[in-house]
Amino acid sequence: IIECNDLNVDIEYLIKKEPEKYIYTPIPKDYLSLVHCTVKCNKEGLISKTFSLYFDGQNENDRTFLLTARKHLKIDGHSEYFIGNDEKSLKNLNDENSIAKLKGINLTGTEYVFYNQNNQQSVAIIYNTHIFGSKEPRNITVLLYNVEKPIHPLKENETIIGEWRAGHATDLIEIKNKTPVYNKESKVYSLKLLENRVKQPSHKNFQLLITNGDREEDIIMQFGRIDDNNFALDYRYPLTAMQAFAIALSSFHNRFRT
């Protein structure tokens, strides 16, 4: 964890000074503001996509590159994302030169597991299954290992999701998304996102909530569409930049929504 004796610490300076270190470590727990980032989606051909994560500075020219990812569709139909920290090698990212991976574990794209730089499972993302054509908002569950505890090792055929469903994963933090509110006049579900960062409605827009010690819900991540190719990604403790990026990537699976 980044050390922070001063609650007014200049997080922007720390991120720009050592971005390679920052992507792996949460910002201070007492730093209550959201860290503002942008995900840029690049479409290459009909099915190939690449993604880049930037820390937002004072303006678009002041951005700091953090991470990149390339979507890969396996022969068996499962999706996976190779994640790297070299912007120049984006198109060549593969299983061997990536520093982390996000793997889809079912064909419908509703369950993902994130493997960190040590090839350990540290995050899982679960989307509720939708009936085709349904306009109901999606429910998201994120399973996250406590950053202050060592990650529990799993066997090769085990996943965080399987352990959680079996009731064995007692050291996981369970995070839920905020449920959008139905507007009777417009007949659509809407979600009020913070700081006017998100500019367009989208089924991909979401907020993640965690219950604090006072049993109140804190927003630890929000994600939403800015325009056709850019998305706001804002997050705070206990997520790292890499974990937040992986969660955002899982939302890009084509579940017949925009």
Structure notes:
- This protein is mainly β.
- It has a single domain (11-250), classed as Tubby Protein, Chain A, CATH 3.20.90.10.
- 10% of the residues lie in helices and 35% in strands.
- The protein has helices spanning 11-17, 19-22, 160-165, 241-250; strands spanning 35-44, 48-55, 64-73, 79-84, 100-104, 111-115, 121-127, 140-145, 172-177, 181-183, 188-190, 206-211, 217-225, 230-235.
- Strand 10 (181-183) and strand 11 (188-190) form a beta hairpin.
- Residues 4-8 have low confidence and may be disordered.
Query: Proportion of β residues?
Result: 25-35%
Shape descriptor = globular
CATH fold description: Tubby Protein, Chain A
> How many domain regions?
1
What is the count of DSSP helices, taking H or I runs of 4+ residues? Answer: 4
Counting helices, strands and paired strands, the structural category is mainly beta
**Unreliable stretches:** 4-8
CATH H level: which superfamily? Tubby Protein, Chain A
**Total strand segments:** 14
Radius of gyration: 18 Å
CATH class identity: Alpha Beta
What is the string of SSEs from the N terminus onward? Answer: HHEEEEEEEEHEEEEEEH
User: In whole angstroms, how far apart are the ends?
Assistant: 36 Å
Q: Please identify, by name, the CATH architecture.
A: Alpha-Beta Barrel
Question: Strands across the major sheet, in which order?
Answer: 1-2-3-4-5-6-7-8-9-12-13-14
